[in-house]
Amino acid sequence: MSFLQDYLRGASSSAPLPPPPPLTSLPPLSSLSPPLLSSLSSHLISSPSLPSSSASTLLSLPSPPPPFPSHLSLLLGSISLHSSSAYPLLISLFQKHLSLIASAPSFLPEALAGLGYALLRVPPRSHYFSQIVSFLFTVWRDSGIASLENGVMVFKLVDWLVSSFIGSGYVEKVSAFCYEFTNLEKCGEKRYAEFAVVMACCGTLRALKVGSSRYKFELSPEMKESVEIAIGVFAEKAILGYEKDDVSLLIKCIVLGLARCGQIGFNPNIVKSLCIALTNEVFPLKSLIQSSLQNSNGNALTKLKEHMEGILFKEAGAVTGVLCNQYSVSDDPTKEFVESLMWDYSHELYSSLRSAILVHKGKSNNLLLSELERIAEAAFLMVVVIANEVSKSRLNPRPGVGAKPPVSIRMLVAFSCVEYLRRVRLPEYTDAVRRAVLTVQDDVALSSDFLDSMPSYYELTGKLDCEDMVEDLYHWSKDDVQTARVLFYLRVIPTFVSLIPSSLFAMKVASTMFLYMQHPNEKVARASHSLLVSFMSSSNQKDDEERLSLKEQLTFYYVQRAVEAYPGVTPFEGLASGVVALVRNLPAGSPGTFYCTYSLISKAKSLSDEATARSPNMWKFWEESSEPCKKVVDLLLRLLSLVDIQVLPYLLREVAGLVSQLPKDGQDALLGEMYVYVAESDDVTRKPVLVSWLQSLSYLSSQPVSNPVAISCL
Predict the structure, then answer these.
(1) Cα–Cα distance for residue pair 645/561, rounded to 1 Å
(2) In angstroms, what CA-CA distances link 528 with 81, 319, 369, 555?
(3) Per-residue confidence band for 67, with pLDDT thresholds at 50, 70 and 90
(4) Region entry Disordered: which residue ranges (predicted)?
C-alpha cells in the first residue's frame, strides 16, 4: 500500500514507508489483480528506473471492471513520478471511467492517491495540470458519494500536496494550484463539487500555515486572502440556503475544515455558519430528542451512538474554539447574532431536555436517556465556552470599547436553562457568571429584568405540555431540569437582593422561594432558606418601611412552613439560619419574633415527647444525641443571646416550662447543658439575668413536686 493511500485512509503515521528493492521489469498488466497493482505502485513510488515498455503496455489495456480503475489510477500516479508519459493515460482513465471510479467508494483513496502523485510532478504550466486537478473536484459530481468523510480525504490530500510543493520550493505551483479552485467562476463552469472545493481551501490554509513556519515560506497575502474569500462565499451560500436547500454537507465541511486549518480572517458569514453548524449539526438536540420521544426503541439509541461517533461531534471542541476566535474580532452586528443564537439555543435545549427526561424516566429508558445527556453535556460546555468569550468582550470591555450590560441578563437566563447539565466546576462558567452578576449588582433595572425572566409560580406548578407523558405522573418536585433552573435563580438573587424593591420581591420571588422550601432535595431547600436569610438581612433606604413590613409578613409564613416540615423536608441548617436571621433583623418586640419563639418551643415539646416514648434512655446520652429535639433545644439556647430584651423574658419562661415537663433525666440533661452555655457566655449584660434565672429553675426542678405557678413566673 502506498504512503499517500494509507494517509488518505486516515492512518496515524506521517512517515513514508521504507523504500523497497528497485524494479527491473513489470509483469503483464492482464495478470495483475488490484492488490498486486497497489503493491506494484508502492515500489514505483521510489523506483529509480522504469521499463520503457510500461507506457505502451498500459495504452493497450482494455476497459477494466471496478475496482480495477482505482488501482490503475494509483499505478499510473506512481509511474508519473518517473515518467510524464503517464499523464495522458491517467487523464484518459478518468475521462472514460469517472463514474466507474466513483461507483467503488471504498477504493477512492487509491484513485485520489493516483491524482495526488501525478500532481506532485506535473508542471503547473502544462495543459495536463488543470485537467488532473479538475478530476479531484468532479469525481463526486453525479455519483452520490459526497460525504463528510470524503471531504476529509480531499482536505488531507490537498494539505499533503501543498505542503509538498512548499517543501520543494514550488511557489509558482502553489499559486497555480490554488487558482484552480479559488476562481469561483471557473469552479461553477466545471461544476466542481462545492464541499470538495471548501475542503481543498481549508487544506491549503493549513499547509500554508505550517509551511510558512517550517520552511520559512514567503506567504503571499493575496494567495491566503483568495482562499479565505472563497470559503466566505460558500459560507454565505450555505447560510442563505440552509432552510430550503440541501446544504447540510457544505456547512459541515466548512466548519470541520476551519477546525483543522487554524486561524482565519474575520468573515461574518463564516461566523454565522459556525453558529448554525454547532446548534443544528454538531448538537442537534432538539431533533434528536424529538426522534427519541417518537421512537424510543433500539433505532433511536443507535442513532444517538452514531452521532457521537461521527467526525463532527468529535471535533466539537475545535469548532467551538474557531467560533470564539472569530467572535473576539467580530463587529457588533455579528456578535449580536452569535449571542442571540446561543441564548435561544439554550432555551430550546431546556424545553426539549425537560420533556425528554420526564418521559424517558417515566418509561425507564435509562440507557437512551444516558446517551442523550452525554450529547447535552457536551452542548453545555459549548454554551459555557462561548458565553465566557461573550462576557470577556461585553462585560469586561477593553479600553475604548463600551460595555453591553443587557447581555448579562440574557446570559444568566441562558445559564439557568442549562444548569441541569452542569456536572463539574468550570473556570469558564465561574468567570462568566461572576462578570454577569457583578453587572447586575450595580443596576436596579437589570436586577428587575432578571426577576422578570424567572418562571412564575403558576408556570412552575402547572402541568407540562407533553403528549408523550401521562399527566397524572407529573409533579413539579420531580421535574429535575426545571428544579435546576430555579436553583440557579435561588443562588443568584441573593447577590443583589438589596436592590430589589420589596413589592417586586413579594410578587416575583416569595411564592417560589416558599414553594421550593418544600422540595425533597435538601440542596434546593437550603438554597431557598438562604434566599430568605439574604432578604431578611437586606436593607434599602428607598423603601425601608415597606421592606420591614414585608419581613414581618414573611416571618409568620416562613416559621409556619419551615417548623411544620421539620424534621423531614426542612433541613435543620436552613431552619437555624432562617430563625437567626429573622430574630436579628426584626425590630425589638416584633410579633414575628414572639411567634417564632412560641413555634420552636411547641416543636421542641412535641419532639421531646416522641423521642422519650421511642427511647426512654435517650436522656442518659443527651450530649451525643442526634435527635431532632436536641437540635431544636440547642437552637433555643442560642436564641437566649440573640432575642431582644423585650422578647427575652417570654423566651426564658417558655424554656422553663419546657424543662419542667420533662422526666427527671431530661431535666438534669438540659440543665447541665444550659449551665455550660451560660458559663461560656461573654455577654456581660445578659449573663447576670441568665445566671439568676438558671439558679431559680434548677432549684424548682430539684423539688419533689413541680410548681407550675412558680415556673411560670421565671
Answers:
(1) 26
(2) 75, 39, 29, 14
(3) low
(4) 1-24
Average pLDDT along the chain:
84
Measured CA to CA, the distance from residue 292 to residue 369 in angstroms comes to: 9
Element (H, E) at 108: helix 108-121
Distance between CA 342 and CA 274 in Å, rounded? 12
Cα 545 to Cα 532: distance, rounded to the nearest angstrom: 18
Closest to 658 (Cα-Cα) out of 670, 648, 649: 670
The C-alpha cell at 331 is 463587529
Comparing 76 with 1, the larger pLDDT belongs to 76
Phi and psi, residue 529, nearest 5°:
-60, -40
State how far the Cα of 551 lies from the Cα of 582, in Å rounded to an integer.
8
Report phi then psi at 244, rounded to 5.
-115, -25
C-alpha cell at position 231: 470559503
Q: Are 628 and 572 in contact (CB under 8 A)?
A: yes
Average pLDDT rounded to a whole number, residues 259-270? 91
Distance of alpha carbon 578 from alpha carbon 556, whole angstroms: 12
User: d(Cα 467, Cα 234) in Å, to the nearest integer?
Assistant: 40
Q: State pTM to two decimals.
A: 0.86
Confidence of residue 419 (pLDDT cuts 50, 70, 90): very high
CA distances from 703 to 212, 662, 670 (A): 98, 14, 16
C-alpha cell at 27: 509483469
SS (H, E, C) 222-270: HHHHHHHHHHHHHHHHHHHCCCCCCCHHHHHHHHHHHHHHCCCCCCHHH
HSE value, Cβ hemisphere, 13 Å, CA-based, for 684:
0
Residue range 678-686: mean pLDDT, rounded: 82
What residues contact 510, with CB distance under 8 A and at least 6 apart? 554
Under a CB-based contact definition with an 8 Å cutoff, are residues 667 and 622 in contact? Answer: no
Three-class SS of residue 407? helix
DSSP 402: -
Kindly state the cell numbers that stand for 48. 529509480
How many alpha carbons lie under 13 Å from residue 531 in its C-beta half-sphere? 28
Q: Read out DSSP for 641-708?
A: TTS-TTTHHHHHHHHHHHHHTS-HHHHHHHHHHHHHHHHH---TTTHHHHHHHHHHHHHHHHSSS--H
CA 110-116-118 angle, to 5 degrees, is 105
- At what angle are helices 366-390 and 332-362 packed, to 10 degrees? 160
Q: Which amino acid is at 123?
A: P
* Distance separating alpha carbons of residues 192 and 327, to the nearest angstrom: 31
Instruction: Grade residue 95 by pLDDT with cuts at 50, 70 and 90.
Output: confident
Give the Cα-Cα-Cα angle 524, 339, 494 (nearest 5 degrees): 30
At 349, the amino acid letter reads L
What whole-number distance in Å separates Cα of residue 195 and Cα of residue 201? Answer: 10
pLDDT in tens, 235-253: 999 998 877 667 889 999 9
